[in-house]
Specification:
The chain is α+β, with helices and mostly antiparallel strands. The protein has 3 domains: 5-116, no CATH class; 154-333, no CATH class; 347-440, no CATH class. The protein is built from 11 helices and 14 strands. A hairpin with a 2-residue loop joins strand 7 and strand 8 (309-315). Helix 8 (274-287) packs across helix 10 (324-346). The N and C termini lie far apart (147 Å).
Length: 442
C-alpha cells in the first residue's frame, strides 16, 4: 500500500473529495493534544495526498510516491524543513482547505479543537485582563463614591421625612423623584396609604417650644380630604364637589407654600338637610380632636349652596368649628335670606326696578315680614329706576319658597290695606322649583 494514502486509511490514489473525507475521519482518531507526532504524520500525508489528487484532476503527470512514509528524524538531529508554513499547522480552517484554490464544500466534518495557546500568550492575556480590570476600577469606583454622597435634595427630603414622622407618629415614604427636584418642595405618602400624596418644604428653624416646626406641608389637608371622602360615601344623595388635594402623582402641580386649601362645595336641597348637616357637623367635631388635626390644623373651606345661592360658608382658622346642631341651625337661619338675595341679584328680580345696578343696596332685612297673611323673609333695597328717580322697594319671599313679592315703600307707607298685586312671569330655578312673582301697582 502506498504512502500517503495508507496513512489516511485509503487503498490507493484517490480524488480530492475522497482525500478530504478520509482526513476528516482520521482527525476523530488522532488528537494533537494526545498524539502530537501522529498528528504531524497525518497532516503530512493529507498534504501530499491532496496535492497528488489536484495533479490528477488537472491531467498532469503524477510522480510515483514512495512505498513507505518518510521516517521521523531522531530527536538529536535538526528537524527537516517543512514544505508548508509550520505556524499554520494548528489552523483547522487551513487544514481543511484545499490549498489549490478550489472551493470548499458547504459541509464539514467535526474536528478536534485547536491546541491551547502557548504559555506566553496566556500570560499576556491575563496581563491584559488585569489592566482592563484596573482601568474599570479607576473609572467606576469614583463614580459610585460620588453617587453615594447624598445631594442637597436628598438631604432635605430626609430631614423633612424625619420631622414629619416625629410630629405625626406615622411611617412615611419619600418619593424617588425627590432626589432630583427642580424646586424645594418634596413629595411623600403614608406607607400604609400611598394613594393620597402630599408635599412638604423646609421653612424656618425648628423650635417646638415656640410651635415652629421648621417646615410647611399639606399633609393634614390630604388627611382631611380622605376623611371627608369616606364620610360622603355614606351620603350619596348629596352632591358634593371637592378638590383632590391639588396634587398630581409626581407632586409637580403644587400651590404656594405647599399648603393649598381644600375647597368643598355642598349642593343641598331646600328641605330635609337636617340629618345630613347634623352628621357632618359631628364628624367635623370628632376630627378636630384627632392628634394630627391638633398638631397641624388643616386649611379648608366649606360652602353650602342651593343652586347658585350661597347659604352658608365656613373657613377654617377664622370661625369656630360648628358641631352638628349648630351647623344645621346656621343653615336653616341663612337659607331664606340667601335665597332672596340670589333671586334679586342672580335671577333678575331687582333688575326690573333698578336696571343700572349690578347688585342692589340692601337697607334692611329680616324674617318677620308678612304679605296677605303669608309669612315671608324680607329685604328693603334702595336705588334709582330707569327714569332716574330714587325709589325704595321691599321684597318678600314666602317661607315655602313658592312666591316673591315686590312692593314699593310708597305703597306700604300709604297704609298697605289696599295693596294691589300684579302677577309677572315666574322664575324657574335649576333645582326644578318654580317661584311666582307678584309686583305692586304704583
Amino acid at each position: 500500500m502506498y504512502w500517503p494514502w495508507n496513512e489516511l486509511g485509503l487503498s490507493g490514489p484517490s480524488d480530492l473529495e475522497t482525500v478530504k473525507h478520509a482526513y476528516a475521519r482520521r482527525l476523530k482518531e488522532v488528537h494533537p493534544e494526545e498524539d502530537s507526532d501522529g498528528f504531524q504524520r497525518l497532516h503530512r500525508a493529507y498534504t501530499a495526498a491532496r496535492r497528488l489528487a489536484a495533479l490528477m484532476e488537472r491531467g498532469e503527470p503524477v510522480p510515483p510516491p514512495p512505498e513507505n512514509p518518510p521516517q521521523e528524524e531522531p530527536p538529536s538531529q535538526s528537524p527537516p524543513a517543512e514544505p508548508a508554513q509550520t505556524e499554520d499547522v494548528w489552523n483547522f480552517e487551513e487544514l481543511l482547505g484545499d490549498g489549490g484554490g478550489q472551493q470548499e464544500p458547504d459541509w464539514q466534518e467535526p474536528c478536534s479543537p485547536p491546541p491551547p495557546p502557548p504559555k506566553m500568550a496566556r500570560s499576556l492575556g491575563w496581563l491584559l485582563f488585569a489592566l482592563l480590570g484596573g482601568l474599570c476600577c479607576l473609572i467606576i469606583v469614583p463614580l459610585l463614591l460620588v453617587r453615594s454622597i447624598p445631594s442637597d435634595d436628598q438631604r432635605n427630603a430626609r430631614q423633612l421625612l424625619k420631622f414629619l414622622e416625629e410630629d405625626f407618629g406615622v411611617e412615611l415614604v419619600s418619593s424617588p423623584n425627590n432626589r432630583e427636584r427642580e424646586d424645594d418642595i418634596y413629595l411623600f405618602w403614608e406607607e400604609d396609604a400611598p394613594t393620597i400624596r402630599f408635599q412638604a418644604n423646609l421653612e424656618g428653624d425648628r423650635n417646638l417650644d415656640d410651635e415652629e416646626r421648621g417646615y410647611r406641608t399639606n399633609y393634614t389637608d390630604a388627611k382631611f380630604y380622605r376623611e371627608m371622602r369616606n364620610f360622603l360615601l355614606a351620603w350619596p344623595e348629596y352632591s358634593v364637589w371637592y378638590d383632590i388635594e391639588r396634587t398630581d402623582p409626581d407632586g409637580e402641580d403644587m400651590a404656594e407654600h405647599a399648603a393649598p386649601q381644600g375647597y368643598y362645595v355642598f349642593q343641598l336641597p331646600l328641605e330635609g338637610t337636617g340629618d345630613f348637616l347634623n352628621a357632618l357637623g359631628n364628624r367635623l367635631e370628632r376630627l378636630s380632636q384627632e392628634d394630627w388635626f391638633i398638631t397641624y390644623p388643616p386649611q379648608f373651606q366649606l360652602d353650602f349652596l342651593h343652586g347658585d345661592a350661597l347659604i352658608l360658608e365656613y373657613l377654617s382658622g377664622e370661625d369656630p368649628l360648628p358641631d352638628g346642631p349648630e351647623l344645621a341651625q346656621s343653615y336653616e337661619d341663612n337659607l331664606g335670606p340667601a335665597m332672596l338675595r340670589a333671586l334679586l341679584n342672580d335671577h333678575g328680580v331687582a333688575n326690573w326696578d333698578y336696571p343700572d345696578l349690578d347688585e342692589v343696596s340692601i337697607l334692611r332685612q329680616g324674617d318677620a315680614g308678612q304679605v296677605l297673611d303669608d309669612p315671608c323673609w324680607w329685604m328693603t333695597c334702595h336705588g334709582t329706576n330707569l327714569s332716574g328717580k330714587a325709589q325704595t322697594i321691599n321684597y318678600f319671599l314666602s317661607k315655602d319658597f313658592t312666591r316673591i313679592y315686590a312692593i314699593s315703600q310708597d305703597v306700604l307707607d300709604g297704609g298697605g290695606a289696599d295693596i294691589v298685586l300684579e302677577e309677572w312671569d315666574p322664575i324657574h330655578l335649576d333645582c326644578g322649583c318654580e317661584i311666582d312673582v307678584w309686583r305692586s301697582r304704583s
